[in-house]
Design goal:
By secondary structure, the chain is an alpha+beta fold. The protein contains 12 helices and 34 strands. α7 links the parallel β8 and β9.
């Protein structure tokens, strides 16, 4: 069939147009690659070096994500590095949550809109001083599971999670128009005992299946040959991490041992360090970190500063290290941006170093968020905890001859009350013991409501109690956070072994998994209730709830504002404001004294309700029963170091 000239011309021009559009699309395709010959990254074909900072969206309220990201951008960073904590999104098996403060995709898009690239670390294990390194506690249902290995039960859970997570990530890869330039597989695996290459290969295959072949997959390990040897496999670009006091050239030589060519990368250069209850607040001098950053950038290396902002372990999300030492609620980290997002001297000093190597963004730096001291708020005692079990455990108790741990009770965080009867007369002080160190992590003991003392993991394994035969023995066990680093991350909580009274094992347990957050959210109310005799000793009181409220002052512009809450005379416990779980307070041990209160949880239109669960001793019997809102944090109260010899920059993230 013959074509007329006009038809031919139209078809020619049409296909020429399609071809031209196709060429434009090819030329505009975004790429992020490793240039091995020139020892650098290439972004869209041009040499590129990232200067990044770590931020954990799970430790910063969504309300403040934009503020924190913009401050990072204005410091001169061109990228942020971030973890995805698995247990934050899948607290219960197959119940995935990605909204509100857990809206990962929104955070990634916000970073992109701010002008920041993203280095993503989705685990499945992340460490991060986060509960169990982000592995969900329900994995321990099979108590023989070998975490972070090719154990089939563990891999099945990992695959189920990644089959949900990674498809959300793929559209946000750089080559697909998003901000993610590289993705880490696992985290510091060379520091784990398993050294299971099949496990790493399984993850690489899984990530490639979901994310494709274009994205850079990398590993991060401590800067020692042995660490990197067990931490990476073919298909992963090996990077190292090290602190500012290390031999920088020597650390990069370790990376070169595994990656003879390609960009130098320090995936974690520590701007500060983590705290533990009972230790002094860790501080790293600004001069130390600026000197190290200058050296790293002078070598042409890529760097991520861990942390650039630390944030807060709201609720129960903190982790712990071994020998058992839980991290506090604050994750301030002595970072360039404070826990509350304040600009620090360290922020401006690092910005000046970055200025030497790249042009800083134009425009003003967002200021520190104002704080307000709302002052003292009186509280009143509501009930001792054991009087409220019908409200706190609506599903009813579980009975067993021997105690069950938290996982067996489907209780993954918070508290369980273990109850039994004294099988013999203890009119004379009798030893209540945890001979196999089976209290994980802290137990508050009462007999017929009379406080007896505290058992504590690794520290206090025995106390003397008194009571008559048949008296009610209550043991309120607190999960203070699961171990997040090392071989002992399979950290079971509760009474993980039996207790003895004198020489006899206790039996006949009634256990109450406490849904305290749900009850507080619904509002704890006063009511008539038959109660135990609630005596108070010079040292301890029975665990009890206290409530109060305050109004935001009227006539003052721009309220509410951020604030900090202080606990004068209080000992240890948990606090909620308007149902939001701020976290643990423990001024008796320190170093953290105040807790950060972000403004978005406060109300100007109604009274702000405060609920305190004091576990040991309140001030209310001897002096004013108040908490106090102040405008300045106290994170570095002087405490005696009950964990001597712990080394700064030892351990991982």
């Amino acid at each position: 069939m013959a074509f007329s000239g006009s038809v031919f011309s139209f078809c020619y021009l049409f296909f020429l147009g399609i071809f031209s559009i196709s060429l434009l699309n090819v030329s505009a395709k975004r790429t992020f690659q490793i240039d091995y010959e020139n020892n650098c990254f290439k972004k869209d074909g041009e040499p590129f070096r990232y200067i990044s900072g770590s931020i954990h969206y799970s430790r910063v309220p969504r309300y403040y994500w934009k503020d924190r990201l913009l401050k990072m951008y204005m410091a001169g960073l061109n990228a942020v590095q971030m973890y995805v904590p698995w247990n934050f999104h899948e607290v219960m098996p197959k119940k995935f949550v990605f909204d509100g403060d857990k809206d990962l995709e929104h955070f990634l898009k916000l970073a992109n809109d701010t002008g920041l690239l993203v280095i993503l670390r989705p685990g499945p294990y992340i460490c991060a001083e986060w509960d169990m390194g982000s592995l969900p506690a329900w994995i321990l249902k099979k108590d023989t599971v070998i975490l972070r290995s090719s154990d089939p039960d563990y891999l099945a859970a990992v695959d189920q999670w990644m089959n949900v997570l990674l498809p959300k990530i793929k559209p946000l890869l750089y080559n697909n128009g998003g901000p993610i330039i590289s993705v880490q597989v696992e985290n510091e695996y060379g520091s784990y005992f398993a050294c299971d290459y099949d496990y790493l290969r399984h993850l690489v295959k899984l990530f490639r299946y979901h994310l494709g072949d274009e994205v850079i997959l990398f590993s991060t390990d401590g800067s020692g040959i042995g660490y990197v040897k067990c931490g990476t496999v073919e298909g992963l670009y090996a990077t190292v991490d090290f602190g500012p006091t290390e031999n920088i050239t020597g650390c990069f030589e370790v990376q070169r041992h595994f990656e003879p060519k390609g960009p130098l990368v320090n995936s974690e250069m520590y701007t500060g360090w983590l705290d533990h209850w009972g230790e002094k607040h860790q501080v790293v001098a600004t001069s130390v970190i600026t000197r190290a950053l200058d050296t790293v950038l002078g070598l042409g290396a890529n760097v991520n500063m861990y942390m650039f902002i630390g944030g807060t372990n709201f609720g129960y999300w903190n982790g712990a290290n071994t020998p058992y030492a839980a991290q506090p609620t604050s994750y301030d980290y002595d970072a360039p941006l404070s826990e509350a997002g304040d600009l620090t001297d360290k922020y401006f000093a690092l910005r000046e170093v970055i200025r030497k190597y790249k042009k800083l963004p134009d425009g003003p730096i967002p200021p520190s968020v104002p704080k307000f001291a709302y002052g003292p708020v009186p509280l009143k005692k509501l009930h001792i905890l054991s009087e409220m079990l019908d409200v706190l455990c609506p599903s009813g108790p579980v009975k067993s001859v021997y105690p069950l741990n938290f996982v067996q009770l489907n209780q993954y965080f918070g508290f369980v009350l273990y109850r039994t009867l004294l099988p013999k007369d203890c009119s004379s002080p009798t030893s209540l013991s945890s001979p196999l160190n089976g209290v994980h992590d802290r137990a508050y003991i009462t007999v017929d409501g009379v406080p007896q003392g505290v058992l504590e993991r690794d520290k206090v394994l025995s106390i003397n109690i008194t009571g008559k035969t048949g008296a009610t023995l209550d043991i309120l066990v607190e999960n203070q956070g699961r171990i997040n680093f090392g071989r002992y991350i399979n950290d079971f909580k509760g009474l993980v072994t039996n207790l003895t009274l004198g020489k006899d094992f206790l039996t006949g347990w009634t256990m109450y998994p406490l849904r305290i957050d749900d009850a507080v959210g619904q509002g704890l109310k006063e009511k008539s209730h038959k109660s135990f005799l609630s005596s108070t000793s010079s040292t301890f009181s029975a665990p009890a709830f206290y409530i109060g409220s305050f109004d935001i002052p009227s006539g003052i512009p721009d309220l509410p504002q951020d604030t900090f809450i202080n606990f004068p005379g209080w000992t240890k416990g948990q606090i909620w404001i308007n149902g939001f779980n701020l976290g643990r307070y423990w001024p008796a041990r320190g170093p953290q004294i105040t807790l950060y209160v972000p403004r978005h949880i406060l109300s100007t239109s109604a009274p702000n309700n405060i609920t305190v669960l004091e576990l040991e001793k309140s001030p209310c019997d001897v002096k004013p029963c108040v908490v106090e809102f102040v405008d300045t944090p106290v994170l570095n109260a002087t405490v005696s170091n009950i964990f001597p010899g712990r080394k700064l920059f030892a351990g991982g993230h």
